[in-house]
């Protein structure tokens, strides 16, 4: 399995590496600015994230040396482990700020709901790619297994409660299921059921603070000091960047602490404020180019599992990006979804880097390597 | 979709529909289901339309926010200058039953630094350090601790400034941007460590408390009750923080004050505790380093008048966080200052338990007040000999004498006739062996054994010999001083077990009463009035009789009724021949005394436990007497007052007779 093959070097995915390094540099620069506290050296948070990046790169090197088909078997083990970890967090971990998300590993607070997204993509890719092909598309009974696979971590994360991540899992499931070619009748049926559930969930399932967030979004003036405040400050930060920004390290919204969570969920607002529209455009072009490259990897993958997996991983990064950027620009309520590769947080960063590592892996093995 | 799929099938397997250039250097290995693969590849390609769609939306939105409305938002960012500081609320006061202040607040002046620009100014730090006369490194350490918190959260640089320092900083405000004086209420303990176990102390909130459910409104750095009523009544005492709104300019300097929110002080808590009684007890216990507990309770309501646990907690050691060394010292101290012995200390009730055995005996009819039992100084049961504390024996004794002289042999036999389970039933109804529900932390339930309990716990059947030990309060029996005080109060008031309470009233800052003490009945003995009367006679005799064991508690004007107890800690042969003073401290017996007064019309019950105090009669009884003397003051036995008693009419006569008989 770890046998060296010259073709692997030949096919090394340099495009992805260059994109990754470019985005990482921007991300770290922005974090440096957002967390700088006036001292002579960068903040400890900056170093922590830097170490996570370096560790993640090393891990990618390890990851690309095994064939991704091996991951298919591993994914079920990982899935079981993640579900147990989620169960453990729900049962035994003291809640922080009303939610139970983190397991303290001493050097690192692991948030198992982050790798859960990745593992779900792996397991769904494996499940769908092993399905027999059906002429007119899949029927409801064909997607029962993937639905159950999604429902277990979804429920566990929902009761933490972490609505954002749970919805993320649901979105991944929907994306990958639609990708798997459903019958139109099935789509209609599921779509209407889903709407019904959403209405019921709004009425009975949401915690007060979650409902308040959504209400605040719809009517920001109702709660100007809290969630409405966050969105408002974020919009001010982004907007006041104008064309070319206030300059690196010069953002007032960030540095005068008007911007909440400025190194985590709202990290990109700092970038927008300091580098303006053209800086943000440059970042988005790089980022979306990376996503398109990921789609390209799906197009050229050697087998069905590879196509599915690449597609799912792109969706994993894509939807988080869209939701986070929509939130920062005031088009969605505050949901705790980080911007991949950009928001501070080890669990999220490692998950994204592993996803990119797997994409590179698929790319490098688009021709049968035996 | 259907048609599209069919087209795929017809396509030669070689043709790549993905549209992406194919690597021609390596030959492609064809799949069996290559057509299907191509189908999915095509879908993946279509999905990029979704990506483009969202990309365009995002770019458009950024264009709208940054270019189209950029000017507007820039203006908003410049005007974005209203900030607030939190103002701590004064905590509620704690008063005694007569309204005397036990714990209140005084202002403490702290120096805080508001990091407007988030930049450390070396000159500023140096200047501040020299004014405050502390090391620069400490200032930096405190600053570092707050890294990552929003800049408008002030960093506390120093606490408890002197007036001179406050004046200096105020006068040089212009040279010290961002440095502010913060006035924080600090607890003042007017009576030192008085009732410290019950009142408790404050400490800085820790991460665990911050992340708990009730942490709303707290911030790191806030003070929170860590023990005793300060903790249990946190919600009443804490009040609500105020907010100080201010406008700042682009550099973060304060421009003008805006209308703020005044902090709302916490509720005042008035205790049922009497400071005078509490002080008497604590001082007496402190003498000769005694450790133990003294409890006084109003027999007809359950109000706790005094709750002393000795040694007291030294509250000043807890101010600003307790040091590791102090904490270790407290943990290893043989007198266990950290333990609130009133409810956390469990001791064999010893002879005080004979009251329970007597009540059970009378109620179950196994003895009558006149039943006489001969005490030769020992009692033979099975193949063992059970000794009476008096080696020469008490001779023929009836119940009254058995109680007053604490004859073991008498109660061995009563116990044997009753059996362990019947005794346990009465003990439980008198409040022993179960938590009282008083507002103190970590209350222990004590232990009243039954045969079932032993079977469950040790998987062995109950031995009848054990019943004899139980009957005199040894063996498995364990009670807390508070439980024994409750039992005494129940005997005194004619059979009503009240829930002990410590909070007289809780008043909001406007003086409205939010909570008021009401007696709560936990249990009631019916039809035991005459039996209890007989027991009281025995207890009166114990204090006032010529041969009573508790003569040291006898008072001039007030008739006291009480019972002593000496609880064995260990029964070791090696110490048998030693004089009491030579036995190591931790193996010495515990001394009990529990009493109530006036016997004719009981008002107050007092229970004293001195750990390793050797003899109840000589060590514990005088403490109870001192407390009673303080309580009754110069009040004599007012005949008018006595005659007004309706409930215990006969008793008054009896009591009078028995006290006469001593003289």
From TrEMBL, chain A:
The keyword Transferase applies. Peptidoglycan polymerase that is essential for cell wall elongation. This is Peptidoglycan glycosyltransferase RodA. GO terms for biological process: cell division; cell wall organization; peptidoglycan biosynthetic process; regulation of cell shape. Belongs to the SEDS family. MrdB/RodA subfamily. Its EC number is 2.4.99.28. Pathway: Cell wall biogenesis; peptidoglycan biosynthesis. Keywords: Cell membrane, Cell shape, Cell wall biogenesis/degradation, Glycosyltransferase, Membrane, Peptidoglycan synthesis, Transferase, Transmembrane, Transmembrane helix. It comes from the Bacteria. InterPro entries: Cell_cycle_FtsW-rel_CS, FtsW/RodA, RodA/MrdB. It is an enzyme of class 2 (transferase). It holds the Pfam family FTSW_RODA_SPOVE. The chain crosses the membrane at residues 12-33, 45-64, 76-96, 165-182, 189-206, 275-295, 307-329, 341-362. It comes from Candidatus Electrothrix aarhusensis. One of its GO terms (molecular function) is peptidoglycan glycosyltransferase activity. One of its GO terms (cellular component) is plasma membrane. It catalyses: [GlcNAc-(1->4)-Mur2Ac(oyl-L-Ala-gamma-D-Glu-L-Lys-D-Ala-D-Ala)](n)-di-trans,octa-cis-undecaprenyl diphosphate + beta-D-GlcNAc-(1->4)-Mur2Ac(oyl-L-Ala-gamma-D-Glu-L-Lys-D-Ala-D-Ala)-di-trans,octa-cis-undecaprenyl diphosphate = [GlcNAc-(1->4)-Mur2Ac(oyl-L-Ala-gamma-D-Glu-L-Lys-D-Ala-D-Ala)](n+1)-di-trans,octa-cis-undecaprenyl diphosphate + di-trans,octa-cis-undecaprenyl diphosphate + H(+).
UniProtKB/TrEMBL annotation, chain B:
One of its GO terms (molecular function) is peptidoglycan L,D-transpeptidase activity. One of its GO terms (cellular component) is plasma membrane. It is found in: Cell membrane; Membrane. Residues 292-629 form the Penicillin-binding protein transpeptidase domain. PANTHER family: PEPTIDOGLYCAN D,D-TRANSPEPTIDASE, PEPTIDOGLYCAN D,D-TRANSPEPTIDASE MRDA. Keywords: Carboxypeptidase, Cell inner membrane, Cell membrane, Cell shape, Cell wall biogenesis/degradation, Hydrolase, Membrane, Peptidoglycan synthesis, Protease, Transferase, Transmembrane, Transmembrane helix. Residues 1-22 are annotated as: Disordered. This is Peptidoglycan glycosyltransferase. It comes from Candidatus Electrothrix aarhusensis.
């Amino acid at each position: 399995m770890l046998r060296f093959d010259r073709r692997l070097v030949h096919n090394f995915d340099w495009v992805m590496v260059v994109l990754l390094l470019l985005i990482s540099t921007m991300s770290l620069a922005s974090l440096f600015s957002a967390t700088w506290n006036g001292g002579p050296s960068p903040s400890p948070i900056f170093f922590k994230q830097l170490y996570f990046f370096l560790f993640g790169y090393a891990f990618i090197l390890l990851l690309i040396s095994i064939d991704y088909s091996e991951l298919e078997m591993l994914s079920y083990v990982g899935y079981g482990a993640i579900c147990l970890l989620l169960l453990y967090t729900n049962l035994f971990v003291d809640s922080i700020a009303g939610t139970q998300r983190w397991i303290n590993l001493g050097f690192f607070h692991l948030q198992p709901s982050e790798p859960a997204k990745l593992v779900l993509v792996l397991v769904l890719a494996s499940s769908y790619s092993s399905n027999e092909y059906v002429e007119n598309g899949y029927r409801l009974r064909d997607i029962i297994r993937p639905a159950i696979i999604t429902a277990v971590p979804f429920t566990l994360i929902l009761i933490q409660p972490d609505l954002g991540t749970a919805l993320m899992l649901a979105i991944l499931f929907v994306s990958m299921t639609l990708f798997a070619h459903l019958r139109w009748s099935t789509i209609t049926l599921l779509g209407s059921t889903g709407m019904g559930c959403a209405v019921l969930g709004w009425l009975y399932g949401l915690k007060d603070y979650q409902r308040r967030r959504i209400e605040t979004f719809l009517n920001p003036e109702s709660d100007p000091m809290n969630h409405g405040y966050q969105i408002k400050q974020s919009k001010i930060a982004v907007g006041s960047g104008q064309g070319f920004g206030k300059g690196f390290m010069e953002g007032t919204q960030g540095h005068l602490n008007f911007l909440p969570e400025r190194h985590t969920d709202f990290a990109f607002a700092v970038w927008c404020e300091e580098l303006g529209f053209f800086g943000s455009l440059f970042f988005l072009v790089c980022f979306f180019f990376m996503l398109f490259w990921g789609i390209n990897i799906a197009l050229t993958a050697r087998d069905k599992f590879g196509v599915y997996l690449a597609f799912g991983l792109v969706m994993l990064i894509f939807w988080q990006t869209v939701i986070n950027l929509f939130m920062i620009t005031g088009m969605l309520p505050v949901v705790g979804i980080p911007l991949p590769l950009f928001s501070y947080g080890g669990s999220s960063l490692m998950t994204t880097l592993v996803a990119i590592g797997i994409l590179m892996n698929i790319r490098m093995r688009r021709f049968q390597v035996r | 979709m259907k048609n599209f799929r069919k087209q795929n099938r017809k396509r030669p397997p070689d043709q790549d529909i993905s549209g992406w250039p194919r690597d021609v250097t390596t030959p492609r290995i064809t799949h069996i289901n290559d057509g299907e693969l191509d189908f999915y590849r095509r879908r993946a390609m279509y999905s990029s339309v979704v990506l483009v769609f969202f990309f365009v939306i995002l770019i458009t939105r950024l264009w709208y926010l940054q270019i189209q409305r950029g000017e507007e938002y820039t203006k908003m960012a410049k005007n974005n200058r209203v900030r607030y500081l939190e103002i701590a609320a004064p905590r509620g006061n704690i008063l005694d039953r007569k309204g005397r202040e036990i714990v209140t607040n005084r202002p403490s002046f702290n120096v805080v630094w508001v990091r407007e620009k988030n930049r450390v100014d070396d000159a500023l730090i140096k200047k501040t350090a020299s004014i405050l006369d502390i090391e620069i490194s400490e200032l930096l350490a405190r600053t570092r601790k707050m890294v990552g918190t929003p800049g408008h959260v002030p960093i506390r640089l120093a606490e408890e400034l002197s007036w001179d320092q406050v004046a200096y900083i105020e006068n040089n405000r212009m040279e010290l941007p961002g440095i502010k004086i913060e006035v924080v209420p600090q607890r003042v303990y007017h009576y030192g460590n008085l009732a410290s176990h019950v009142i408790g102390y404050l400490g800085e909130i820790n991460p665990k408390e911050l992340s708990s459910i009730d942490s709303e409104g707290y911030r790191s750095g806030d003070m929170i009750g860590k023990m005793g009523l300060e903790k249990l009544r946190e919600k009443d005492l804490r009040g609500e923080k105020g907010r100080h709104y201010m406008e700042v300019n682009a550099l973060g300097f304060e421009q003008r004050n805006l209308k703020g929110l005044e902090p709302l002080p916490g509720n005042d808590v008035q205790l049922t505790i009497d400071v005078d009684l509490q002080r008497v007890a604590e001082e007496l216990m402190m003498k000769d380093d005694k450790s133990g507990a003294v409890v006084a309770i109003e027999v007809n309501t359950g109000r706790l008048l005094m709750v002393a646990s000795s040694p007291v907690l030294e509250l000043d050691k807890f101010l600003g966080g307790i040091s590791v060394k102090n904490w270790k010292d407290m943990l290893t101290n043989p007198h266990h200052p950290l333990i609130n012995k009133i409810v956390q200390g469990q001791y064999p009730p010893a002879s005080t338990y004979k009251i329970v055995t007597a009540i059970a005996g009378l109620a179950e009819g196994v003895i009558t007040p006149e039943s006489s039992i001969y005490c030769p100084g020992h009692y033979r049961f099975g193949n063992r000999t059970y000794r009476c504390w008096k080696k020469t024996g008490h001779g023929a004794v009836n119940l009254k004498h058995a109680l007053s002289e604490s004859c073991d042999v008498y109660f061995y036999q009563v116990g044997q006739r009753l059996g362990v389970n019947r005794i346990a039933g009465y003990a439980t109804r008198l409040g022993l062996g179960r938590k009282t529900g008083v507002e103190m932390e970590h209350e222990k339930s004590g232990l009243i054994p039954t045969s079932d309990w032993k079977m469950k716990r040790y998987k062995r059947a109950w031995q009848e010999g054990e019943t004899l030990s139980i009957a005199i309060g040894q063996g498995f029996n364990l009670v807390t001083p508070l439980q024994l005080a409750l039992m005494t109060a129940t005997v005194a008031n004619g059979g009503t077990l009240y829930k002990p309470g410590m909070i007289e009233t809780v008043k909001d800052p406007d003086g409205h009463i939010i909570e008021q003490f009401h007696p709560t009945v936990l249990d009631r003995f019916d039809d035991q009035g005459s039996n209890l009367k007989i027991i009281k006679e025995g207890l009166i005799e114990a204090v006032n009789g010529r041969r009573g064991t508790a003569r040291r508690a006898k008072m001039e004007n007030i008739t006291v009724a009480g019972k002593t107890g000496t609880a064995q800690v260990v029964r070791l042969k090696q110490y048998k021949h030693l004089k009491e003073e030579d036995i190591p401290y931790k193996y010495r017996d515990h001394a009990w005394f529990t009493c109530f007064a006036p016997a004719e019309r009981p008002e107050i019950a007092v229970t004293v436990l001195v750990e390793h105090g050797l003899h109840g009669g000589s060590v514990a009884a005088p403490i109870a007497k001192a407390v009673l003397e303080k309580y009754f003051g110069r009040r004599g036995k007012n005949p008018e007052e006595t005659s007004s008693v309706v409930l215990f009419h006969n008793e008054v006569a009896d009591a009078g007779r028995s006290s006469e008989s001593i003289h």
